[in-house]
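Example 395.
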Amino acid sequence: MSKTIAINAGSSSLKWQLYKMPEEDVLAQGIIERIGLGDSISTVKFDGKKESQTLDVADHVQAVKLVLDDLIRFNIIASYDEITGVGHRVVAGGELFKESVLIDDQVLAQIEELSSLAPLHNPANAAGIRAFKELLPDITSVAVFDTAFHTTMPEVAYRYPIADKYYTDYKVRKYGAHGTSHYYVAHEAAKLLSKPIEELKIITAHIGNGGSITANLHGKSVDTSMGFTPLAGLMMGTRSGDIDPAIIPYLVENVPELEDAAAVTNVLNKESGLLGVSGLSSDMRDIENAMEEGHPGATLAYDMFVDRVKKFIGQYMAVLNGVDALVFTAGIGENGWMIRRDVVKGLSWFGMEVDPEKNVFGFAGDISTADSKVKVLVIPTDEELVIARDVERLK
Ligand code: ADP
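Predicted structure in complex with adenosine-5'-diphosphate:
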């Protein structure tokens, strides 16, 4: 029996989940938010209880120490050495990391070098890794990359139609994201359908605040909607997704407050998507509520969102030359029955149909009608479990 902790470190947050392995029992989970901002909030959930406290957590080392001390305080562990493994989610693995790896000094340096591909995420991921190395230097430490699952994409999918030197010299290509989630739900879908994944064509729609859609051929990613960065693809909570790249210089030249490309990129990342179009909120629940009250911006945002999801599914049916199952996952995919209904309504010609009695809030599993040629599935994602399993496998 061992205890393994899965870590998702952001620039000002640290999300964690503690497992008893190999049983895969979740012993506790939590999040520390607002690290370094003076009034950090730490929340721990265990045994059906939820404990929160506000205190000053200066950096990731202090955050990890707080997590470990809370685990002792709440009698979840008796001492630090009960934790034998840690798995870290790392956003960008570039072309270097095609699978999860044990972290040594070289791997940590490489994760930091890849920061140019994920400037907001990789430095934070590395800070989380370093904090654990400092406090628990002897435990198994594994990096699980968001991009690894997508390294099976063929060159036609991952290359952009720009001159070769930009790929060769500057590594500009599609890397994708949410790989751990797409991998997990595609495998769960195969289990649900009682078929070997090697025989299935599956489209996985991870739609949360950020979102991406992946074409899975026989269990491997062959195309995905996020690109060089997670700004590409679908319309998201605050991100634009795909737009004409010529819009960027046009805005720089014509909008006084957008002085350079960085300013526009910031708008595209943080002030676009559902938030930008609705002028109201980046949260799908707010959009749906406002739409029901007749808010025109929310209605347009909702319709555009559905349109983008539908079009990527259509593209990937072409990429796969058919599809056996469509999987919805993440916050909107798992809970948003209205979005699922409206996306699939537009795909009925392709033989997809959801059963309104199953397509309800709180239902997971097969939501398609008996006649539906393509199975439509709702599968809650579990990236932390994949991380914990990889630690177990590599130790
Ligand atoms: P993140 O990408 O930050 O992990 P999540 O996967 O948690 O995001 O998804 C958050 C999104 O899920 C929000 O837009 C939220 O409104 C949406 N969501 C949660 N519950 C529902 C629901 N019942 N109906 C529609 N959308 C929902």
